[in-house]
Write a structure and sequence with these properties.
The protein has 267 residues and is α/β, with parallel strands linked by helices. The protein is built from eleven helices and eight strands. The structure holds NADPH dihydro-nicotinamide-adenine-dinucleotide phosphate and (2S)-3,4-dihydro-2H-pyrrole-2-carboxylic acid (A1CAB). NADPH dihydro-nicotinamide-adenine-dinucleotide phosphate (NDP) binds next to helix 1.
């Protein structure tokens, strides 16, 4: 990509995006500007040739595309800080939870194309699921933004009303899936494996299950039916998990996360 990109807020997600983009060679390291106040913590990106700095305005002045990746309560402040650098030809993409396109427009003013994107931390290894919502952006710019996030996983356009749902299912979802793997590993240790072997088996098995659905595009129960031998051990274990509230716990957790989003301070 010939454009320059600035990532304002190089924390967990901002850095993950940076690593994903340079590892995929989507952008040259020297065309990427990543900011945070404690720049020493961006050392690894700096060693890879990325411009690491604490001057948000300078970073935004250099780039055509500006990705905002600070915590929700800092988003408006940061947008106002870099406002003078956001000329109408630029594209601003916020990955901030709970900050609407309308709030962004209010902080920046009319002109630039605005997007909200909700990737997850697997973006660092180019395996993100990213949901994107656009405001007043030409079709061609929307395509470019989807293309950017397709470089580092799978990206789709959604209506902004679904952005909180996308946050929970896609971004928080990484943590839910990892907690499943941790629990499976702990069970694996109890039935005989050393911890690292249990984790490998649990992780690769989850990867395989996800890949079956993504490649075959069938309902999970279709694949489960292939595993559950009548009177076998799989159905016995699955039924016990459901008696203990497995699916119900997950759905209730998803709803709790969803209801929490509107309570996250964005000012
Ligand atoms: N983590 C995740 O899985 C996901 C997070 N999100 C959203 O992404 C955003 C970032 O989350 P996350 O990466 O986890 O949070 P982090 O706290 O890890 O990252 C935010 C970064 O912003 C930096 N920062 C704070 N103030 C400024 C400033 N004035 N100028 C520039 N940088 C600043 C902080 O570094 P320093 O203190 O050194 O300045 C910090 O590293 C949040 O809005 C979150 O809701 C969305 C999807 C997934
Ligand atoms: O937990 C949070 O609030 C953010 C949003 C999605 C992932 N992390």
């Amino acid at each position: 990509m010939s454009r320059k990109i600035a990532i304002i807020g190089g924390g967990n997600l901002g850095s993950a995006i940076a690593f994903g983009l340079i590892d995929q060679s989507f952008i040259q390291a020297e065309s990427l500007f990543v900011t945070r106040r404690q720049i020493a913590k961006l050392g690894t990106l700096g060693e890879r040739g990325v411009n690491v700095l604490s001057d948000n305005l300078f970073a935004a002045q250099q780039a055509e595309w500006i990705i905002i990746a600070v915590k929700p309560h800092l988003a408006t402040k940061v947008l106002e800080e870099i406002k003078s650098a956001i000329t109408p030809d630029k594209t601003v993409i916020s990955v901030v939870t709970g900050v609407s396109l309308e709030q962004m427009r209010k902080a920046i003013g009319e002109g630039p194309a605005l997007f909200r994107a909700m990737p997850n931390t697997a973006i660092a290894i180019r395996e993100s699921m990213t949901c994107i919502a656009a405001a007043d952006a030409p079709e061609s710019t929307q395509k470019e933004v989807v293309e950017l996030f397709n470089q580092v996983g799978q990206a789709i356009i959604i209506n902004e009303e679904l952005m909180n749902s996308a946050t929970v299912l896609g971004a928080c979802g990484i943590a839910y899936a990892l907690r499943f793997i941790r629990a499976a590993s702990q069970g694996g240790i109890e039935i005989g494996f050393p911890a690292e072997v249990a984790q490998l088996i649990a992780s690769q098995t989850v990867k395989g299950a996800a890949s079956l659905l993504i490649e075959n595009k069938k309902h999970p129960e279709f694949e489960i039916d292939k595993v559950t031998t009548p009177q076998g051990c799989t159905i016995a274990g699955l039924n016990e998990m459901e008696h203990q509230g497995f699916s119900s716990a997950l759905i209730k957790g998803i709803m709790t996360s969803y209801l929490k989003i509107d309570k996250i301070p964005t000012e």
